Amino acid sequence: MATPTITDPQGIDDPIQRLQNYFTSKLWTGKIPDDSRAISYSSYGKACIINGKPYYYVSAIDYKELLMNDKIDGHSFFVVNNSVEFNDYMHQSDVDLYFFVDLKKLSAVTTRAEQEVIKDVMEILRLEPNGFKLKSTTMGEDALKDFSDEYTQTMQPFFVFKFSLELIYEFNFC
To answer: Which listed CATH number (1.10.1220, 3.30.2000, 1.10.3470, 3.40.50) goes with 13-170?
Structure first.
């Protein structure tokens, strides 16, 4: 499913958008097991958390609340730590990558396939040269500690997991 992207992304927005686009084209693109319907997955780019709820980029000055949507099979988004370290022309920042997925629709196995969907994402993170380094994975309610109770109460039927990443990127000044 197409999601908004930034025209001519700069700085940290560039590697985030490249990975967002890669997820859109490579992650969960097939059919739902035992169904003929295509998997509906949305990869959102950089989001920010306002009052315990995530908001994603819509346009140059507009963000929209990222609501839970049980009509899609999964979605993901990035949240950037507000602190950036500088070393010459390289920048380093911590980035959290959140996934909300309906396991019944994304996996052919009959058990709760948490590790299978995590592995799907990890393979892309390891294979796609993108500057992201995996630091840790957090699942379930622990992954939602930065979100309000109001937001987390609407998460069913989704399995939630978060990758804590370190991103090293170059900021082009030309």
So the answer is: 3.30.2000
